[in-house]
Amino acid sequence: MATVRVRFAPSPTGLLHVGNARTALYNWLFARHHGGKFLLRIEDTDVDRSEARHEAQLMEDLRWMGLDWDEGPGVFGPHAPYRQSERLGIYREHTEQLLTEGKAYRCFCTQEELEAERKQAIAEHRPQVYSGRCRAVGEEESARRAAAGEAFAVRLKIPDHPLRFHDLVRGVVEFPNETVSDPILVRSSSAGSSAGASGGMPVYNYVVTVDDALMEITHVIRGDDHISNTPKQVAIYEAFGWKVPEFAHLSTILGSDRERLSKRHGATSIASFREMGILPEALVNYLALLGWGAEGGTREIFPLEELIAAFKLERVTASPAVFDFEKLNWMNRHYLKECDRERLADLAWPYFAQENWLPPQDVAGTDVHAWFDKLLAIFVPSVDLLDQLPGRARFVFDFDPLRARDEAENAALLESESAQKVLSAFAEKVRAHAGAVDPAQFKAWMNEVKTETGVKGKELFHPVRIALTGSHSGPEFDKLIPLFEEGSGLELPVHVMSLRERVEKFLAE
Q: Any idea which of 41-50, 237-246, 263-272, 412-421 has the lowest mean pLDDT?
């Protein structure tokens, strides 16, 4: 088997979204599985919409996902340059070759003439394909009209036979030639322009085929929205006498309503998932399962190296995949629990710094870092996303008794006679104690309050929990109390109240 060479070729016209990210991942996994090459090519011939910031963002997103490239921007290779805007001379040479060999022709039809043809085809219930009437324009006349400055496009002559290709997901696919219009290779030049013999700006189907052939791409793995483009590309391969690569068209990704995934379903860009606190390994693992499954079909957790070993295109399904945000959250929760402690702190710190609860990470002392590790150990198991952490831990930094009392369920509980008795007895224990409180001391107090008041179970613990955290549910006291006590002595942008301070403030308000 020849060396596998695949490419991911995004347009820098916006953010990298789920569908394209999965395409990049499948190409990368296929290359790595076969010991081949993964190329990154930037398709930026849409000059009006392509932006350098989008190119930089998509490369950053790919690196964040762990998808490195063997050739492409920033990585020298034998097929440079890797931006289509820098390859226009290459396309021009190939266009002139096709015109010289009579495999392409100049089309002088105006937009009005083409629209009239389209309407007539509709009225006669025929395929809406170009009639090919400019095929009949002789080469001498064609050159004369072009030299005179008449606007023209360049079209490929579709051969008189079906266009067939092999799809690794769908099998053999065939298009009758009469259903494929002579495709435009180069857009119409402006009247009077100096575009020369080969016209204006080359179109997507043309440049992508030239690039794939010259970059020796063996497998084209992309979304199924490109299937209708493929017969035109096959015809271009044939016109140049190039070998047609294997294709694999990936199924569409749907939302929960079975419609194509879009912003209305929620976050869909890789940048958004990063901001939410999805770990790259969780997203990569989840994207891999959107249309693919390992042999056996029951396993769901795959570290990247194991994905590489297991990935086979034969296991990719043609059926649309449904993006399940809950499943992604579940997977992220798994990887958060497995995450190295130091890395987890690095990832989580910015969310707290944004709230002005923590200082910049690089100036915080070792005591603050150690305390933050304990905080994460308490709260990370209860979240799906890193951006949920500040909400869960808010009461540690921002304890508001009035907000706690205003909450309807809390208010009803606190009004009971048993709650008032418990809080009064508990406050006496706290006020009589000098120094910091440890979990053993707290446990002893609760046992004493239970004996003195005769209150037990939820009615005993819920009022105290509300007085300390603002909620009747939450992490275990034996973990929270050291966090309060140690945190109260740290130099932080906000003061973390000790157990004593919380009780006094709650009863005062």
A: 263-272
Determine how many CB atoms are found less than 10 A away from the CB of residue 111: 8
Work out the angle between the directed axes of helices 52-65 and 280-288 (0-180°, nearest 10). 90
Phi-psi sector, 241: left (phi>0), alpha (psi -120 to 50), beta: left
Residue 181 pLDDT level (bands cut at 50, 70, 90): confident
pLDDT band at 305 (very low <50, low <70, confident <90, very high): very high
Which residues are designated catalytic? 263
When pLDDT is averaged across residues 464-479 and rounded to a whole number, the result is 94
Burial class (CB in 10 A: 0-12, 13-18, 19+), 19: buried
Identify the sign of the CA torsion 273, 276, 281, 283: negative
> 3-class DSSP state for residue 184?
strand
Residue count of the chain, please give it: 509
Q: Which residues contact 437 (CB under 8 A, 6 or more apart)?
A: 430, 481, 485, 498, 499, 500
**Alpha-carbon distances, residue 318 vs 17, 252, 314, 321 (angstroms):** 20, 9, 10, 9
- CA dist 12 and 45 (Å) reads 10
* Nearest to 207, CA basis, from 183, 223, 228, 224: 183
> What are the phi and psi torsion angles at 5 (to 5°)?
-135, 120
* Residue 431: per-residue pLDDT: 93
The structural domains of the chain, ordered by start, are 87-250 (3.40.50.620), 399-508 (1.10.10.350)
Q: What H or E segment, with its residue span, contains residue 422?
A: helix 417-432
Cα angle 170, 174, 179; round to 5: 130
Query: Do residues 503 and 430 touch, judged by C-beta distance below 8 A?
Result: yes
Strand-pairing partners, residue 55, are: none
Q: What angle do CA 471, 475, 480 make, to 5 degrees?
A: 95
At 445, is the secondary structure helix, strand, or coil?
helix
Average pLDDT, integer, range 32-41:
98
First to last CA, the chain: 77
* Residue spans of beta strands (DSSP E) within 2-123: 5-8, 37-40, 104-107
